[in-house]
Amino acid sequence: MPRIAIIGGSGLEKLFEASKTVQLETPYGTPPPVSVGLIGKEEVAFLPRHGPEHDLPPHKVNYRANLHCLKQVGVERIIATNAVGAINNTYSPGDLVIPSDILDFTKSRIGTFFDSAPVTHVDVTEPYCNELSTTLLTCCRAINTQAHEKAVLAATEGPRYETPAEIRMLRTLGVDVVGMTGAPEVFLARELEICYSAVCFVSNKAAGMQEKLSAVEVMAIGKRVMPSMLNLLHQTVQKIPKQRTCACGSAIHQAQV
After folding, report:
1. In a domain, 256, yes or no
2. pLDDT along the chain (257 residues), means of 10
3. Which pTM value belongs to this model?
4. Is 57 contained in some domain?
5. Under 8 Å CB-to-CB from 204, ≥6 apart: which residues?
């Protein structure tokens, strides 16, 4: 029963030297197969957000099935990885970012497990688990890998990139990076009382900040930063405290009417 899970995309399959694959069913549909393997002495689950063949665009990912299946196998902590575009001028392609807040600009995704009674209003004053994010940042420093912290992530619908006007609006709102997969993952994890943090890699400057945007460029930057990302994940998994001292595990307490 893995207590830690990593959600990500292509390249992260290399997390494990050996793993077993588990296919689960949930009340919300069938998620991608989950790989379970060892990092050090810790059993860890890996869920490929876009499917094993990376054939699900961000607006078609079944986020509820993905999160629910991790809850079913006993996961208490999730580290998500995301490719993002930089809006903050001090961020460059290849940089790592640990977000602390999020703006949700998605449109068509179901963002809650609570569609009926009891009416539930979950608190997201701290959308990302502070204990988990602190562990990520501590491990970044330990391996001499710089990461931007206290960053605001904007989640957009996709699959198209944003327009220059949209990026100017997001910059005005105080956004540092923009991506297509940050929401509703973070909110669904909170509703399931699972700790959730993210490590993003900057794959490009956002629209209007460079001549054009290319999915090929995003993949190339992803391959370049993958060794650092894998090293960080390996170190972090082994440093995550056994006992949770954050409030994530009691998120539904006082949330229901």
Report:
1. no
2. 90 80 96 94 95 92 98 97 96 96 97 95 97 97 94 97 97 98 97 98 90 81 90 96 95 91
3. 0.95
4. yes
5. 85, 86, 93, 210, 213, 214, 217, 218, 221
